[in-house]
Amino acid sequence: MDKFFKTGERGSSVGQEVRAGLTTFLAMAYIIAVNPALLQEAGVPAMAAVTATCLGAGIMTICMGLFANRPLACASGMGINAVVAYTLTGMTNGDWHAAMAVVFIEGVAITVLVLCGLREAVMDAIPVSLRHAISVGLGLFIAMIGLKDGGVIVANESTMVALGNVTDPGFIVGMISIIASVILFVMNVKGALLWGIIIAMVAGIPLGVTQAPSGIVSGLDFSTFAAPFQTDANGVMGIAKVFATPALLVFAFSLMMSDFFDTMGTAMAVAKQGDFLTEDGNVEDIRQILTVDSIAAAVGGFVGASSITTFVESSSGAADGGRTGLTSVTTGVLFILAAFFAPVITIVNSAATCGALVIVGFLMMGDVVDIDWSDVLQGFPAFMVIAGIPFTYSISDGIGLGFIAYVIVAAVTGKIKEIKPLMWVATIAFIVYFLLV
User: Fold this and answer.
1) pLDDT tens for residues 61-74?
2) Is the Cβ–Cβ distance between 277 and 70 less than 8 Å?
3) Geometric angle at alpha carbon 67, from 143 and 105, rounded to 5°
4) What Gene Ontology terms describe where this protein resides (cellular component) (predicted)?
5) Is the predicted pLDDT of residue 346 greater than 80, yes or no?
6) Per-domain residue ranges for the chain?
């Protein structure tokens, strides 16, 4: 095992990798409850959605560990699952099979781009300053997710965002999670982030935040598998409906743009914590990572789980010592087991994971010093990425704003020749994407 995963070579151990895999799983476990709840809005059967969510995440995360040997975990993407539930299903007249077919087609298309080398080439065309900015922006985004999940920040009609109610049980658990995590982290306790989650979960029991499980064992339902090739009440196959509807194919392009750059940002964020990001901002083993991630999107549509993508919460496991694919394999196995014990797993509340995500956000801020703020061509586009990712609550949208800003500033400062051809392609694609969404 050590030879296959190179745990010793990367300064890790089997125990450290397993612990990191558990940390990642607990940080992601909310998806087991949230994704089926959203997909039910689209008409997907409840138990089938749970099965698809768990098995899809488990299988593709294990594949990531075995093929890429990096600590990245995959699951149904938040945002895209909401699009499937509230937008795509409406466009298909309530046919969720066709909605999953759109996701499936998007996954196949982006897999082709990876195999052709285009996705990797676009990453290579990104200026170094923007690569650092993506890492910093992701750090703020991850911290924002953690603070939101812990009820520390809440939506506000007047100010957009505000401090949560300090007497709310969720807020209290969130703060306990942050305080416990930072104390353990400062004290160099092994598995600090994992222990922070566990302490917050225990503290949430008397506060009513950590609920008792409704059961222990759950059955499996495979009725959503091969969703794109299932038929509606009129006998029309979902994938056939997509190819017959140009608007759905255009929507597939929008999903592809989001998937394309979300994963790029996530990979850089996890690589920063897992020590496989080079000094010039390149992610080691990126082709293998992108290949698995792209196939995962198609698999998500096929099994009826929405698009499966690399989760930014993977950075919590990497920050907790995960360095190899054994972390991913551990997380994947836990997801598969969760398919049988979903009622127990779903007691892991998002407030308890708040501290882990905030610590990860803190750790990712270091890249800000590597950006030349005295050079407007490097500084302003970087700022747009850093501000854009958390403020739009979208990785791809923030990256798009930075790309467009870079081209504009380069043009007006007479440095347009510094823009690589694929940077032009990506920027134009972003403009089209913004006009379509």
Assistant:
1) 999 999 999 999 99
2) no
3) 75
4) plasma membrane
5) no
6) 2-436
